[in-house]
Specification:
Layout: H1 3-10, H2 17-28, H3 38-45, H4 49-61, E1 65-68, E2 71-74, H5 79-89, H6 91-106, E3 109-116, E4 119-126, E5 141-143, H7 148-155, H8 159-168, H9 182-195, E6 198-201, E7 208-216, E8 222-231, H10 237-264
Antiparallel strand pairs: 1-2, 3-4, 3-8, 4-5, 6-7, 7-8
Helix pairs in contact: 2-3, 3-4, 6-10, 7-9
């Protein structure tokens, strides 16, 4: 939601401040910040220390957090929040068989993500048996501008939402190939819309390249993206494009058709 609309909504009678703050506290915990003190949470969220403390204690009482020696961490119960989303949208059960088929044919991992703020959020994943240095699972967040799925999801955003993305995003250099400017990214997104697929070569991490294609709903709107990630030293860009891309496009079409059929039933 655009900042202006969000600010206006906060002034309405429908806005629940305590829920907003509680979600801010939950989101303060990340892979890098798995254990936080009250002061840590207050600093990350901008909330007062007493407010952060009350929310953390409430989460602990409800079983969503636990504490040891003044450090709080989330419990496995928070997974139920994400499971509610996955269950309601049925993405995992619909996409999984097609993703598994792709992995069996290629021997490479396959993932589905959506756009959440300036990040992509993984909502389904079938991993290959190959070991990669980057740890990815359902719930993982990665910067959209440095990922193939991010390029696909950004490419089909309405102009207003894309401008909101650029207003909120900060470009961080991960490798020498990382996109670092708005103009450069806009050119890439133009190519993605033209070709109906996107790819990155070692933009997020050295040795990691991937391709992605959109997943569409019944009305043809892009609602998610599916990708294939490979090690650059093992799979060339030509093989990724010429051999894996057609299989990934077929996978995307099957997922899109299955989701349309399910939602229209």
């Amino acid at each position: 939601m655009p900042i202006e609309k969000l600010d206006a909504f906060k002034q309405s009678g429908d806005y629940i401040q305590s829920l907003d703050r509680g979600l801010q506290v939950i989101q303060a915990f990340t892979q890098k910040n798995q254990s936080l003190t009250v002061s840590n949470v207050a600093k990350i969220t901008g909330l007062s220390r007493p407010t952060a403390r009350r929310i953390l204690l409430t989460l602990e009482h409800l079983g969503f957090a636990e504490s040891t020696n003044g450090f709080f961490s989330l419990t496995a119960r928070t997974l139920t929040l994400g499971h509610a989303y996955l269950s309601s949208n049925n993405i995992w059960s619909i996409a999984h068989p097609f993703m598994r088929d792709f992995v069996n044919k290629t021997g490479e991992s396959c993932s589905v993500s959506i756009l959440d703020g300036t990040d992509i959020l993984y909502v389904a994943r079938v991993s290959s048996k190959r070991i990669m240095s980057i740890n990815i699972d359902v719930g993982t967040r990665l910067p959209a501008y440095a990922t193939s799925m991010g390029h696909v999801l950004l490419a089909y955003l309405p102009e207003e939402k894309l401008e909101n993305y650029f207003a909120s995003n900060e470009f961080t250099k991960f490798t020498n190939n990382t996109i670092q400017h708005k103009v450069q990214l806009l050119e890439v997104l133009k190519e993605v819309r033209k070709n109906n697929w996107g790819g990155v070569d070692q933009q997020l991490e050295e040795g990691l390249r991937s391709i992605a294609v959109p997943i569409r709903n019944l009305h043809g709107e892009v609602i998610a993206a599916v990708n294939c990630s490979v090690h650059a030293g093992r799979i060339s860009k030509d093989v990724l494009r010429d051999e894996f891309l057609p299989l990934l496009q077929e996978t995307s079409e099957k997922i899109s058709q299955a989701m349309a059929t399910t939602n229209n039933a």
